[in-house]
Design goal:
This protein is about 30% helix and about 20% strand. Strand 4, helix 3 and strand 5 form a beta-alpha-beta unit. By secondary structure, it is α/β, with parallel strands linked by helices. The chain has a 5-stranded parallel beta sheet, with helices on both faces. Strands 1-7 form a two-stranded antiparallel sheet. The chain has 4 helices and 7 strands, in the order E-E-H-E-H-E-H-E-E-H-E.
Length: about 160
């Protein structure tokens, strides 16, 4: 038996890009761990990439775990995919994981930095359990790559056989 993982009633080209705590400070960090681009610049880059791929992108950021959960739940039935950089909540949020596991579309986890070259607590991601793929360590380029990858994922529905 073969079945499509993305239900046909989901808007095919709508994607949510969720950013977690402190992502709004990108470009302001003196250490430049997250690169030079400010959050508004990253948003502009992502919106331009999505437009070129004819994706309807909703790009949002919150410092609050509950808001991210609310957005994931809101995306159910309204989006074909979620790209998420849960930031610091990546390593601690069971509620975000549970919400993502209930999302019927495609999921890509993205990080500006290479989380496996950083502190040991960053080496375990709860988000990865729900994600179709992970992009990490490529800065703002990784954000654009995640949008391109999502476009390809939603254009090629995954099939499984039991």
């Amino acid at each position: 038996m073969i079945f499509a993982m993305t239900p046909p009633d989901l808007p095919h080209k709508r994607v949510w890009f969720l950013n977690g705590p402190n992502a709004n400070l990108y470009g302001l960090d003196a250490s430049k761990v997250y690169g030079n681009d400010s959050f508004p610049v990253l948003q502009q880059r992502c919106e331009a990439k999505a437009a070129a791929l004819q994706l309807d992108l909703r790009f949002v950021q919150s410092n609050y775990e509950g808001q991210l959960v609310d957005w994931i739940q809101e995306a159910r039935g309204t989006a074909a995919g979620i790209i998420i950089n849960a930031a610091g909540l990546t390593y601690s949020s069971i509620p975000i994981l549970d919400a993502l596991l209930a999302f019927p579309g495609r999921i890509i986890e993205v990080h500006m930095s290479n989380i496996w070259r950083r502190e040991p607590f960053r080496h375990h991601s709860y988000i990865s359990k729900a994600a179709d793929g992970v992009i990490a360590g490529l800065g703002g380029n990784g954000y654009e790559m995640a949008i391109e990858a999502m476009s390809r994922l939603i254009d090629t529905p995954e099939t499984q056989t039991p």
